[in-house]
Specification:
heterodimer; A: about 400 residues; mainly alpha; 23 helices; about 0% strand; disordered N terminus; disordered C terminus; B: about 280 residues; Fumarate Reductase Cytochrome B subunit
């Protein structure tokens, strides 16, 4: 290999100095770099596999080595100096580069030269770049979670990059989206870029981010358009539109990366915690009634929040559109209790025995039961203690000084 | 105890409970324990033992199914008892069911005996001379009777809410759930502490009184504990009629086994309830 270089070099050196030097051809470069065992002085591989390059999008479209390694276009001395300029993808891909420039990755790299944040080649590769449409490309729809996961699933990089969200790759893989992508092989299942974008990935705290709190419904709505529409009409969407900072968005209930099927039992209990994070009082009263008691034991055939209140288009009970409004509550009960009537629907699924205004009958029943329990246990508690102390005596248990010994006289 | 058992060996035995009552009490015990153990996990669903106890029955759903099975059994006992009472009263015209020493009806002498017994506890007077049923036995009986109506009734409402909504507004289901739980707690707490003490655990009976299993009391016990009954039977020459042979040995062994298991289970339940109530900081 070295011999080949030495042979090639004088030919290149012989170029006339006055004319612009003819840039080296790909063959010139591969004469040295095409050897799979080619290494730099420090032992680092500098090989460029000719077949791999030829199969790449750049190889296919006739891009020359020096189109990217532009600093080598004018070099006349070979072997060239070991230090070469970084490749500027922006020369040919100005749009992607401009998008990348505003990303959290670019910001991190600008801030620190030792940043672990991804540059172009970390996702796309170098000499073997394949278009995303190619199934073997690291940026292919089905490969992307693994590509992002090289950093976002790597504990060392997560630590060094101070990535607050932690390992999102395993969370995503176990989510409904991850399953749809990896197991069901759905083109419509989202990969990372569908929510986060590819080049202009921004922090969720950045108002221009696709995952900024108020933008999330629109981002999810790209696929779940019908749900977004219902959400925006409901009380939660309305609160968000009015600028309520506590208004829940999609990820507040569904989480971002761990999204589960809403039909499963895991979700039916999970939703109690999600709704409860804003509505603790409703969860407390729910747990005091039959549905809530059963749910505590893990019995999942009873109603949890969404079964009565709906999910995305939740309205306050006084709104006739609400599933628990007086006009609709009976049909809501009938989902589980066929034959339910208006009388049946007067059951309070959030009854509070301490609230006289809301549940007067229950309030007084609770007070009566309390008095009954205390009365019975107090009376018989004292009765029992007195009896026990009277009966525990030396000698015959039934004898007593006042009653006199009554046993077999 | 040694003195008592030595005495009973030679003593005559008298019938206190017939076979019907003993079997009925046995089924009642079985279903009551079942109801307590399948129901309490739901009432104390926050307690750390709730999910595990329900898990012993196959989870919350299975515990609910079993609870209904035991409920049907207990309602059956209750119906049989009421049916027999009615039969005795209306067909056999046994008016002593309504009044007198053989009746469960609370009577003036019960109030007098309660006061006298409390005075005896406090060493202010002699122990009253009880007849066939004492006031605490009548309380036990009526507590169960009232409990059957309240717990059974509310339980049926909770089991068939759609049917009952034809007669009751839904707000009564809230009351039914509360009352079912609180009455259940009262019944379980009462039976597993007060009834166990009165019947079995008090020092002069400890560890158990086999009378509900054997149906027999010794002459000594009858004289000791129910002198009024003994004297009444003696005076009316009915004592010989009430005399029976000794219970077969296997009945005694079975009684001991069943009572030990039932009392232990009951005390475990009391422990679990106390743990739940105290750890919830009520």
């Amino acid at each position: 290999m070295l011999a080949a270089c030495l042979v090639a070099s004088p030919a290149l050196a012989r170029r006339p100095a006055e004319a612009a030097p003819k840039p080296p051809t790909n063959d010139d470069c591969l004469a040295c770099h095409g050897d799979p065992s080619a290494t730099a002085a420090d032992g680092r591989s500098i090989a460029v596999l000719p077949d791999k390059f030829a199969a790449s999008i750049h190889g296919q479209s006739g891009v020359a080595c020096v189109d990217c390694h532009a600093d080598l276009a004018t070099v006349t001395e070979f072997p060239h100096a070991e230090k070469v300029a970084p490749v500027a993808c922006a020369t040919c891909h100005p749009e992607a580069a401009a998008q990348y420039d505003v990303s959290v990755h670019a910001a991190s790299r600008r801030k620190s030269p030792n940043s672990v944040a991804a540059a172009c080649k970390d996702c796309h590769g170098t000499h073997g770049i394949l278009p995303a449409s190619n199934p073997n490309s690291p940026t292919n729809h089905f490969n992307l979670p693994a590509t992002c996961g090289r950093c976002h699933g790597n504990a060392d990089i997560i630590r060094r990059g101070h990535i607050a969200v932690g390992n999102v790759v395993t969370a995503f893989q176990d989510s409904i989206h991850g399953w749809a992508l990896a197991k069901s092989g759905l083109m419509v299942a989202p990969d990372c870029t569908d929510c986060h974008h590819a080049h202009d990935i921004r922090r969720k705290s950045d108002p221009q981010s696709s995952v900024y709190r108020t933008t999330i419904p629109a981002t999810c709505g790209k696929c779940h358009e019908g749900v977004e529409r219902r959400y925006l009409t409901g009380i939660h969407g309305e609160a968000l539109s009015k600028g309520n900072p506590d208004a829940p968005v999609c990820v507040t209930c569904h989480t971002a990366h761990r999204i589960q099927r809403a039909e499963g039992p895991a979700w039916k209990t999970q939703v109690l915690a999600e709704c409860g994070s804003c509505h603790p009082e409703s969860i407390r009263t729910y747990h005091d009634t039959f549905h809530g008691q059963e749910t505590q034991l893990g019995f999942m055939r009873v109603a949890t929040c969404a079964d009565c209140h709906g999910a995305h288009d939740i309205f306050p009970p006084r709104d006739p559109r609400s599933t628990v409004s007086t006009t609709r509550v009976v049909s809501t009960c009938r989902k589980c209790h066929p034959g339910a009537t208006a009388s049946f629907a007067r059951y309070d699924p959030h009854a509070d025995k301490n609230n006289r205004q809301r549940d007067p009958l229950l309030f007084y029943a609770a007070k009566f039961m309390e008095a009954l329990l205390i009365g019975v246990f107090a009376f018989f508690g004292i009765h029992t203690v007195l009896w026990a102390s009277r009966a525990v005596k030396p000698g015959h248990p039934m004898s007593g000084p006042d009653g006199g010994p009554r046993s077999q006289e | 105890m040694d003195q008592t058992s030595a005495a009973t060996g030679a003593m005559k035995q008298y019938r206190r409970f017939d076979r019907y009552h003993r079997i009925l009490h046995g089924v009642l015990m079985f279903s009551f324990l079942g109801l307590a153990f399948t129901g309490m996990p739901l009432l104390f669903n926050d307690a750390p033992w709730a999910v595990r106890l329900a898990g012993l029955f196959g989870g919350g759903h299975a515990a609910g199914v079993l609870h209904r099975f035991f409920a049907v059994l207990l309602i059956g006992c209750f119906a049989l008892h009421v049916f027999r009472l009615m039969h005795r009263l209306f067909v056999k015209k046994e008016l002593e069911v309504l009044w007198g020493p053989a009746s469960m009806t609370p009577q003036p002498r019960d109030v007098a005996e309660l006061i006298a017994n409390l005075r005896w506890f406090l060493r202010l007077g002699p122990q009253p001379k009880f007849d066939h049923f004492t006031y605490w036995e009548k309380f036990d009986y009526w507590a169960v009777f009232w409990g059957m109506g309240i717990i059974g009734g509310s339980g049926l409402v909770l089991w068939f809410p759609v049917f009952f909504s034809k007669f009751l507004p839904g707000s009564w289901f809230n009351v039914a759930l509360l009352v079912h739980g609180e009455e259940g707690l009262l019944a379980v707490g009462f039976i597993f502490t007060i009834h166990f003490f009165n019947g079995h655990l008090r020092p002069d009976k400890f560890p158990m009184d086999p009378v509900i299993f054997t149906g027999r009391v010794s002459e000594h016990e009858l004289q000791e504990e129910r002198p009024a009954e003994y004297e009444r039977l003696l005076a009316s020459r009915q004592l010989e009629e009430a005399e029976v042979g000794a219970a077969p040995a296997w009945v005694g062994s079975l009684a001991k086994g069943v009572a030990v298991v039932a009392v232990s289970l009951g005390l475990v339940m009391v422990g679990l309830i106390l743990y739940a109530v105290l750890s919830a900081g009520l």
